Amino acid sequence: MTANHASLLGWLFVFLSTAALYFGLSKLDPGNLNSAWPLLAFPALVLLRLVFNALDGMIARANNAATPMGEVLNELGDIWGDTICYGILFFIPFVNAFHLALFLVCCWFAEFTGLLGRALPGHIRRQESVLGGKPERSLLFCVFAVICFFAPMTAMYINQFLLVLTVLTFLTGILRIYKIRKQTQGLSYQSHTLYGR
User: Fold this and answer.
1) What is this structure's pTM?
2) Which has the higher per-residue pLDDT, 54 or 95?
3) Which CATH number fits domain 3-184: 1.20.140.10, 1.20.120.1760, 1.10.10.10, 3.30.300.30?
4) Smallest Cα–Cα separation from 158: which of 54, 39, 38?
């Protein structure tokens, strides 16, 4: 398997997990749990997405084939994967669009602050989390999906669930900013723009 193969498989599982979340929630029926079986497949598909997402970078580094563009595509894939997977909830009638949009904005915020650490002096990709990093968000969504399958009425609390996740993701971004501030203390820094320093 090459790094590109792993990346393509990662994207395949992005779309499969997105479909599982949508069809599982849209077909929830307390009287017929079998109709919502995709919710049980969702955790396995998310796990495979995360595995292949990590595997592409590991293969590239092992083969000394890591490139800057590969890292750019990997980071964009992370955030776009989350946006697609959770953005499908806009099509679920009982999901509050504002709550979901706020959550997605905070996802972008947390990932962007993580990348800023790499761009600033010290050059560390910040991974700190207050249960709001990509793996933690994925895990919490998986737990919620499984609970919804066995207790369908729980799905009606998805907006409150999104608000909790939004707060955790926002706090994750704030924590990463704090860590970047500590990381850059005492180090020289020059700002570069299109028009020069």
Assistant:
1) 0.92
2) 95
3) 1.20.120.1760
4) 39
